[in-house]
Amino acid sequence: MSSAAKACDLLLFGTKGDLARRKLLPALYQLEKAGLMHDDSRVIGIARDELEQNAYQQLVRKNLETFIKKEPIDEAVWQRFLQRLLYVQLDLTAAADYQKLSAVVDCEKRIPVSYFATPPALFASICAGLHSAGLAADPARVVLEKPIGHDLESSRLINEQVAQYFQECQVYRIDHYLGKETVLNLLALRFANAIFASNWDHNAIDHVQITVAEEVGVEGRWSYYDDAGQMRDMVQNHLLQVLTLIAMEPPARLDADSIRDEKLKVLKALRPIDISNVHEKTVRGQYAGGYVAGGAVPGYLDEEGSRNNSSTETFVAIKVDIDNWRWAGVPFYLRTGKRMPEKRSEVVISFKPQPHNIFHETYKQLPANKLIIRLQPDEGVEVQVMNKIPGLGETMQLRQTKLDLSFDETFSSKRIADAYERLLLEAMLGNQYLFVRRDEVEHAWRWVDGILEAWKSTGEPPKSYQAGSWGPVSAISLLARDDRNWDE
Ligand SMILES: NC(=O)C1=CN([C@@H]2O[C@H](COP(=O)(O)OP(=O)(O)OC[C@H]3O[C@@H](n4cnc5c(N)ncnc54)[C@H](OP(=O)(O)O)[C@@H]3O)[C@@H](O)[C@H]2O)C=CC1
Ligand SMILES: O=C1O[C@H](COP(=O)(O)O)[C@@H](O)[C@H](O)[C@H]1O
């Protein structure tokens, strides 16, 4: 750890919740294991229950054993990690309780970094509580989990509540996709390789596809998910963030505001979708029962906790137009859904065909070159190019072939860190470039709200698709209308 980095007190609000147990505590353990925690940093778990320090530490140990599946807990690492763990009992809605934190945290010694792994409805009380405990002044930081609101209005409210006590430079809004190794690699691919940098616009690219498909359904989160739907849960944040990284102009520097300024310009350039074009540009689906990975699964309306008249979407496909010079006439097709045939997130860049085909005798129509960026699983980068098949003869025989770089093989000695490891580390180091700025969140909501309103005013239910399929048939038509098809 660099000697310039300062020690932190990571205040983990909601330490007994699902996110903290499954993701945050294991990520912190991995940072400890990698030697990336500052020697003097501490992790202060906060929840409502009365718990002895010992009991909290045992709880954390149990979580690590449950959620770190690939390896046994390393006893030496655990002993070091254990020394950092503290527990504070606090009711987040009780203003007076926050004074307990002033007694534990000394801002002179460590920067307070407060992670809100709680429902967003509590963010305002936590911010006020931190302020009253003297833990809000710069360089204190707050890390906010999604969802930042349900629409533009509610996201503004949350952002205003936070801004009452924290300046924007203190606020770290999580989109865990920005912490993924392969999403970060988009910056390297685009801006460290002249071959792509000079072929990254409407002159060279025909269209872009972004797919984020999951095998899982709602996984017992029906009450949250049914309010949100796939548009709010995945498109407003993860897909739009990936899109901005693909579409943005080169930032002047690799710093937070240079990158976020460019991402914001893309969000501002998204062509609005409203009632006039919502049928042409979007598809909404909801899964019915079917088979995923060989097993029978229930439909959305038969999931545990469901209301059987819900018209929430579990699948979205959108044709996105970006109204700027670079992307004029280049559609970005987004597709995301639950209960798809496989878990697969990828970006496919389809290049324009050759203007003239000199191989027409053997290959009537040369297929387009494609750059496929596999975000997860099987992380890697693939380029589809034409090659001559070796052999003698009068005419050249060609075949489409792959230049395939698998992260696993190429960087076999490197472990791919979970997104939360990187994000927690960057928050503790005070680097905001992988966190979403307020104006980005709000512009994303403005665009998404337009589509949600248009869907509402059509009054149409989502189209049904069988679990284990790639969504409603109309998702295929969305591209077929443009004489294109989804990359399978
Ligand atoms: N789970 C996940 O994978 C993801 C979650 N998120 C977001 O992260 C946030 C947390 O999610 P998740 O962990 O799933 O939610 P949980 O409901 O599992 O956990 C929320 C935590 O907040 C605590 N809490 C609630 N009210 C109070 C209170 N008055 N005082 C003290 N503590 C309180 C709960 O404490 P208690 O145990 O006492 O009830 C609980 O530990 C949500 O905003 C969610 O949308 C985002 C991405 C993924
Ligand atoms: O934020 C969310 O993301 C997950 C998918 O994340 P991934 O890292 O597994 O791709 C999604 O299942 C969940 O519904 C959503 O809230």
TrEMBL record:
A molecular function (GO) term: glucose-6-phosphate dehydrogenase activity
Catalytic activity from the UniProt record: D-glucose 6-phosphate + NADP(+) = 6-phospho-D-glucono-1,5-lactone + NADPH + H(+)
Annotated positions binding substrate: H176, K180, E214, D233, K338, K343
Domain (Glucose-6-phosphate dehydrogenase C-terminal) ranges: 187-486
InterPro entries: G6P_DH, G6P_DH_AS, G6P_DH_C, G6P_DH_NAD-bd, NAD(P)-bd_dom_sf
Binding site for NADP(+): R48, D91, L92, K146
GO biological process: glucose metabolic process; pentose-phosphate shunt, oxidative branch
Gene3D superfamilies assigned: Dihydrodipicolinate Reductase, domain 2, NAD(P)-binding Rossmann-like Domain
Domain Glucose-6-phosphate dehydrogenase NAD-binding stretches: 12-185
Protein's UniProt keywords contain Metal-binding: no
UniProt keyword annotations, A-Z: Carbohydrate metabolism, Glucose metabolism, NADP, Oxidoreductase
Domain of life from the UniProt record: Bacteria
Leading EC class: oxidoreductase
EC number: 1.1.1.49
Gene Ontology cellular component terms for the protein in this record: cytosol
HAMAP family, A to Z: G6PD
Its biological purpose: Catalyzes the oxidation of glucose 6-phosphate to 6-phosphogluconolactone.
Family: Belongs to the glucose-6-phosphate dehydrogenase family.
Protein known as: Glucose-6-phosphate 1-dehydrogenase
Gene label: zwf
